[in-house]
Write a structure and sequence with these properties.
The protein is of the alpha/beta class. The chain is about 35% helix and about 15% strand. The radius of gyration is 17 Å and the shape is globular. The longest helix has 17 residues. α2 crosses α10 and α4 crosses α5. The strands form two sheets. The chain has an eight-stranded parallel barrel, surrounded by six helices. It has a two-stranded antiparallel ribbon with strand order 1-2.
């Protein structure tokens, strides 16, 4: 891992803060909570999430291109879904993150959202990482299903080495022999990465758990061990979510979860961001 010259800390105080827009950043004093459905559906659903969670989240997530195990599963709403994200981004002022699966998608997605996610299956898609390194768009890099800490760090190094310093790491669970949970959340790697890298780290408890009843506890544990924030799947009617319904929590549960994080944040020297003025955030959105 000595080759990770750009990703590892230069000194113990070295820390990067990645800005999504003029009002939202990841890695600072405030924790960053991102919420939304696995897959983007109707505009009114996304607007409901943005409106009802205005005081709880600092960003919206939603996939428009979906990597699925089965070729017969829903693959995402594509361009129609991206138009939904663009509209809710403008109306809410919240920064938006969505997954990029191919080099050909980068230019279109980068124009419409604030952060591009590299999913676990593409963590070592080196051509994609190199191409993302040639943009200045923030990248959320998810750890691969079976990736070691070193492989994860070196994947980030690809992006930085090609010119883009705006990388946020994301621990989303690794594959195990145990099928009770979808994956196993590796909080040890979160603590380790906070010690050795300067990049911010989010935790995705939804994909780690695969079960909505575990999401809150894993979220609290993630903040306690030093994560800079969370990215959580939520929906107004979780059972009707287009994909990953079993790990999607309600908006009420999401708001209660964020509230429960406040004393934990204080205990580890962090804070939960205050709700942003909607008009101010609208004015920061680049169209």
């Amino acid at each position: 891992m000595k080759d990770a010259k750009l990703t590892l800390k230069a000194n113990p105080l070295h820390k990067s803060v990645i800005r999504l827009n003029d009002t939202t950043a990841i890695g600072g004093q405030d924790l960053t909570i991102i919420g939304g459905p696995c897959a983007v559906g109707a505009l009114d659903t996304m607007e409901t999430i943005a409106t009802r969670l205005r005081g709880s989240i600092q960003g919206l997530r939603g996939g428009v291109y979906k990597p699925r195990t089965s070729p017969y599963s829903f693959q995402g709403a594509g361009r129609d879904g991206l138009e939904v994200l663009e509209q809710v981004r403008r109306s809410s002022g919240l920064p938006v993150v969505t997954e990029v699966m191919a080099i050909a998608q980068i230019e279109t997605l980068a124009h419409s959202v604030d952060m591009l996610q590299v999913g676990s299956r593409n963590m070592q898609n080196f051509d994609l990482l190199k191409a993302l390194g040639q943009t200045d768009k923030p990248v959320l890099l998810k750890r691969g299903l079976s990736a070691t800490l070193e492989e994860f760090v070196m994947a980030a190094e690809y992006i930085l080495a090609h010119g883009n310093p705006n990388v946020v790491l994301c621990e989303r669970g690794i594959r195990s022999f145990d099928s009770y949970t979808r994956n196993v959340l590796d909080l040890g790697v979160v603590a380790a990465l906070k010690q050795i890298t300067h990049l911010p780290i989010l935790v995705d408890p939804s994909h780690a758990a695969g079960r909505r009843e575990l999401v809150a506890d894993l979220s609290r544990a993630a903040i306690a061990c030093g994560a800079d924030g969370l990215i959580i799947e939520c929906h107004p009617d979780p059972d009707r979510a287009i994909s990953d319904a079993q790990q999607t929590i309600s908006l009420e549960a999401m708001a209660a979860l964020v509230e429960s994080l406040k004393p934990i944040a204080v205990a580890v020297g962090r804070s939960i961001a205050q709700p942003l003025d909607i008009q101010k955030t609208r004015e920061t959105v680049r169209v």
